[in-house]
Amino acid sequence: MTDTPAVRVRGLRKTYGDTLAVDGVDLDVAAGEVVALLGPNGAGKTSTIEILEGHRDRDAGEVRVLGHDPARAGLDWRTGIGIVTQDGADLTELTVREAVRHFARYYPEPRDPDDAIELVGLTGKADARVRTLSGGQRRRLDVAIGVVGRPRLLFLDEPTTGFDPQARRQFWALIRRLAADEGCTILLSTHYLEEAEALADRVAVIVDGRIVAAGTPATLGGRATARTLVRWADGRQETDDPAALVASLTRRYGGVVPGLTISRPSLEDVYLDLIGDPS
Amino acid sequence: MTTTLGRPGTRPSAARLGLYRAAIELKTFFRERDAVVFTFALPAVILALLGAIFDGVYPGSDVTSAEYLAPSMIAAGIASTTFVNLGTGIATDRDDGTLRRLRGAPMPPSAYVIGKILMALVVTVGETLLLLGIAVVAFDVRLPTDPARWFTFGWVFLLGTTACALAGIAASSLAGSARSAGAVMHLPYLVLAFVSGVFFTPVGALPGPLITLGSLFPLKWMAQGFRSVFLPDSILPQEVVPSWEHGRIALVLAAWCIGGMLLCLTTFRWHGRRGR
Ligand SMILES: Nc1ncnc2c1ncn2[C@@H]1O[C@H](COP(=O)(O)OP(=O)(O)OP(=O)(O)O)[C@@H](O)[C@H]1O
Ligand SMILES: [Mg+2]
């Protein structure tokens, strides 16, 4: 791996007519890193990812993906990129195997198509027509096609939408394997906080086209240093030193403190706080 | 900087990928019942129906209405398997994400075009054979033995197929979505089939303004060219002018090839409704 970041974005802006979809995004993804983009509907995740994929024009900003500007990069650059889009309705008349095998042909050193199908757990459906797949199976096919060319950088736009819990766990294992064993760099968007927490080395929260927070899942939004909330039957208090507070409470109650809970904000608390949810 | 690029090794050539595309396109075409029924089977059904309905012999010749219809229907069949087929097919590819997925892979754009053209060519040859078969078996059309006539068939087929294919690729950009594509492509096709003297025979009996309209498009000239291959000269009084006008046919079809190519190059869009 080189020291060049896989993705480097500075001041990215994108408007559709009057809609400002991306408003000055800065983002770095180091080679081999797994980064998750979190954000509410319409925040600008897909717009950002599509610009990085070279599928969309930008209005302003500097973008480098695998060292090249995606708006001008050629087919050799494409051999290193894997793409799983949010909405594909194509390939319906082909079988799973025919579709994956066909896309393997475009790449200089593809994975064995059957391995790619196995990797996403679709082996049992390899000879089924794509049109007969369930929503989650269809997304898994999209992932198989996305990884069949052995990409060095993989873009996944809400890859697990429609997955059942077991399929989601399998998918997480696949992503970890791609990152750990093959050094694949991954940028994914998701609405699932536990997914970001489970997979990502770093999380960026995007709201109204702007990155409002970025960091590891453990430190996001000052989560690691946030004051701890101690609650008990007759009261609650935020503190930097929960141990001291609990000790004094124990003395006050002369033993067991009724209804004692000690909590740090969950990723979900931090996230909802970041996107300005009033609840 | 090359270290930051993709995998080493050489990418497959555009020509080879074009062949793979053609195989996938053909599979998809023949598995889609709508496409097969409306673009492949419909011209054959119309030939069988109209051939059975029309009757009589044109005065001054021994040509029956069905014999007159058959070569014209071959021209309409070609328009269906090129113009309609490519127009709806590409509009659908743009709408359902096919083009976006292909553009995301290291596919040279020419591979897509080669695949589409080869697919249309195979389907068109199949269509032509099917229509010829019906004409020979059901309507006693005799295949010419004179090589000069087959030479005419060859160049009319090539120029006509190319012109209609390019027009279809260009027209695909007019359809806003896959669902509207069928209507957008079938309307001009059906109108032209009437004003070119295919569904209405003989062409010379059409009202003047409609003849003028039909003469602007390739279908009329293709049909005329195929009639010159299969019909005796004794039918010429039923044509718009009493001559097969081979020179003019070649000229109009070639002009459509060039114009269609220019239209394709200027209007073709890879992205769908959602824009860039
Ligand atoms: N092609 C388009 N034309 C016009 N507006 C668009 C287009 N694509 C996106 N937008 C607008 O840009 C904004 C950002 O959209 P985007 O699809 O990037 O959001 P997102 O974060 O991916 O949302 P989701 O979680 O729902 O997928 C939205 O307000 C959307 O309505
Ligand atoms: Mg999105």
TrEMBL record, chain A:
InterPro entries: AAA+_ATPase, ABC_transporter-like_ATP-bd, ABC_transporter-like_CS, ABC_transporter_ATP-binding, P-loop_NTPase. One of its GO terms (cellular component) is plasma membrane. Residues 7-233 form the ABC transporter domain. Keywords: Antibiotic resistance, ATP-binding, Cell membrane, Membrane, Nucleotide-binding, Translocase, Transport. It is found in: Cell membrane. One of its GO terms (biological process) is response to antibiotic. Coiled coil: none annotated. One of its GO terms (molecular function) is ATP hydrolysis activity. CDD domains: ABC_subfamily_A. It is a peripheral membrane protein. SUPFAM superfamilies: P-loop containing nucleoside triphosphate hydrolases (SSF52540). It comes from the Bacteria. Pfam families: ABC_tran (PF00005). PANTHER family: ABC TRANSPORTER ATP-BINDING PROTEIN. This is ABC transporter. It comes from Micromonospora sonchi.
From TrEMBL, chain B:
The keyword Transmembrane applies. The chain crosses the membrane at residues 35-54, 74-92, 113-138, 150-175, 187-211, 249-268. InterPro entries: ABC2_TM, ABC2_TM_bact-type, ABC_2_transport, Nod_factor_ABC_transporter. Keywords: Antibiotic resistance, Cell membrane, Membrane, Transmembrane, Transmembrane helix, Transport. GO terms for molecular function: ABC-type transporter activity. It is found in: Cell membrane; Membrane. GO terms for biological process: response to antibiotic. Residues 34-271 form the ABC transmembrane type-2 domain. Coiled coil: none annotated. It is a multi-pass membrane protein. Its main location: membrane. GO terms for cellular component: ATP-binding cassette (ABC) transporter complex. It comes from the Bacteria. Belongs to the ABC-2 integral membrane protein family. This is Transport permease protein. It comes from Micromonospora sonchi.
